[in-house]
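Dear H.,

Thanks for agreeing to be a second pair of eyes. The structure we're designing against is below in token form, covering all 77 positions.
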């Protein structure tokens, strides 16, 4: 679920995660409950941060094209 940034006029910025279908709806400020508009930023969609439950997967786990063994063509042999 994407994380969006909002800014309360009285309390300042905060972030909220909610479905993409609700991206344009003001969210209540967690401190004063006043409706706060979304800031004009790109949503955080995940994949850039590590999960707290375990280590991150290696960048190249052996299944990608750059890690696959290359075949020599018949002409090169």
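And this is the sequence the design step returned. I haven't edited it by hand at all.
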């Amino acid at each position: 679920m994407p994380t969006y940034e909002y800014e309360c006029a009285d309390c300042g910025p905060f972030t909220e995660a909610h479905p993409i279908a609700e991206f344009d709806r003001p969210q209540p400020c967690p401190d004063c409950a006043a409706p706060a508009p979304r800031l004009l930023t790109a949503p955080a969609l995940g994949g850039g941060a590590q999960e707290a439950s375990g280590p991150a997967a290696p960048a190249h786990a052996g299944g990608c094209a750059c890690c696959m063994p290359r075949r020599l063509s018949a002409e090169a042999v």
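Two observations from my side: Confidence is low (pLDDT under 50) at residues 49-57. The CA atoms of residues 65 and 73 lie 17 Å apart.

Warmly,
E.
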